[in-house]
Amino acid sequence: MTSERPPVLFAVVAAIGIAFFVLPLAGLISRTPWETALGELTTPEALTALQLSLVVSLAATALALGLGVPLAWVYARVPFPGRNVVRALTTLPMILPPVVGGVALLFAFGRRGLFGQPLDAIGIRLPFTTAGAVLAATFVAMPFLVLTVEAGLRSMDRRYEDAARTLGAGRWLVFRRVTLPLIAPSVFAGAVLCWARALGEFGATITFAGNLPGTTQTLPLAVYIALETRPEVAITLSLILLAVSLAILVTMRDRYLRAF
Amino acid sequence: MLTARIGVKLGALDLDVAIEAAAGEIVAMLGPNGAGKSTFLRAVAGLVPLHRGRVELDKIVLEDVALRVHLPPERRPIGVVFQDYLLFPHLSALENVAFGLRARGTPAREARARAKDWLDRLGLGEHAGARPRALSGGQAQRVALARALAIGPRLLLLDEPLAALDASARSEVRRDLKRHLASFAGIRIVITHDPLEAVALADRLVIVERGRVVQTGSPAEVTRQPRSRYVADLVGVNLLRGAATAGHVVLPRGASLQSAEAIDGDVFAMIHPRAVALHRVRPEGSPRNVWRGRASTLDFQGDRVRVGVEAEVPIVAEVTPAAISDLDLAEGGEVWVSVKATEISVYPA
What we know:
The complex is a heterodimer of chains A (about 260) and B (about 350). Chain A has about 260 residues and is mostly helical. In chain A, about 75% of the residues lie in helices and about 0% in strands. The relative contact order of chain A is 0.15. Chain B has about 350 residues and is an alpha+beta fold. Chain B folds into two domains: about 1-230, P-loop containing nucleotide triphosphate hydrolases (Rossmann fold), CATH 3.40.50.300; about 235-349, CATH 2.40.50.100. Chain B has helices at about 35-45, 95-105, 110-120, 135-150, 165-180, 195-200, 220-225, 230-235, 320-325; strands at about 1-10, 15-20, 25-30, 50-55, 60-65, 70, 80, 155-160, 185-190, 205-210, 210-215, 240-245, 250, 255-260, 265-270, 275-280, 290-300, 305-310, 315-320, 335-340, 345-349. In chain B, helix 2 crosses helix 3, helix 2 runs parallel beside helix 4 and helix 3 packs across helix 4. The longest helix of chain B has 16 residues, at about 165-180. Chain B is elongated and about 80 Å long. The chains are: A mainly alpha (about 260), B alpha+beta (about 350). At the A-B interface, helix 8 and helix 9 of A face strand 7 and helix 2 of B.
């Protein structure tokens, strides 16, 4: 690689750009009450939020895997009319303001919503429940999984599937024993991205599922609420989210995220 | 017994090939890249649907467009060794070979035991646990062969079985492959663009060009009477086509050749380059075919030189390096060509 001495102006602006990202982290870390951090983390509300966040984000990831892998397969393999439009619709939550997603979910699955009313009639209530929080997290996080898995399916060598079929494997067996193992890295990367997005989900959750401690108050919501009353709790919880994000970035950097 | 008429339209390729193969026969389908050989293989295996035609193997109809019969690939008794072998990279050699048995319902333990037998038979017992990427090209090919044979097919299809190997390994692997192919009793069809491979492995050649069969026969028959420029080039002979009247062959551009054979109609005329004589001045004497041309290429191949002569009858001559210096011949130089009538082999086109 050839190294180049940057013009002074570029070096200065680049340094400002770096500072822009580093300073907030420094601010967060400088205010961390290290001596009492463990104590803050083990307070009931922090533990509850932490536990709920894990449950919601993992459930959302599981739901996204169950729905998203078949969806990605259809996108990658079945050239149906309007495929690009449908794909755009299911990708929309990636760039949609999450609060808009929350509002949309509310008018679809809320008690007065389009589908909420019939669901309510058979005793299923989603808004302001943990299931609702899972739904909100899945809504915003699943597109990451679908896009990653579709890319994996498109780049795999399909001749392996042909080979499996000539050996006597039906389509389902081919998918299970050949396709899925071959795209496992993509599925794993997609699931981790999806989980990270679900873990940080705020806007759609608070709009659709509310902010009920123990039911829908996940870590990001707890951070936001604690900031008003007990900033040291907010800082400690933020650090947890920061550490998780950093860990994901480090583990995925070389192996799966070359494209990013 | 395989009877297949394969009609497939795929992009620019219009494939229409009929082939028959008897039990125990080894057939090589030989042709240039893009002739449609791999598509033929995929169609017989059921991976590409036919537009027209029929595939029947041992009295079982695998596909018939008119009858709307299409058996999916997993239900055809056909083993395939793919180009690049396509061993599943996430499975060991043993699991690769056991895959087909397991897919066909053999319990895991028995499937592994039989897969191990196959690997042993092909001399790969100690590599049973190896992942494909740890195998050499020749070993990978044998695993692919074991995988295809383990399902007990009636027909074995091999697509360019030696193309993935480096030249140094090829002759040894070819010898092994010939031995292993001989031990399989069903029909074997080898797809290749390499004439050496085709002749080494097969009893019968089917030459395919641009989606059509242009010639079939034993290697000796095909070599003796090439029926296309492609085959003639493979064999290294001159092939001309024209209209004969009592052995006098008129070529499309108006030139003509005199042969010693009394034959009429549309014919091929084959002339071996060694039978083409070159002269500095117009030769006198008995040769019936004499013309003037320009040496366009001189290709030195050890103890002989192939000289391409541009003329009203374009031809390649094969002479010794000494003859080149006697003729004082250089590329672009003028030269006289003569061919004796008895050296021209003429047969119906």
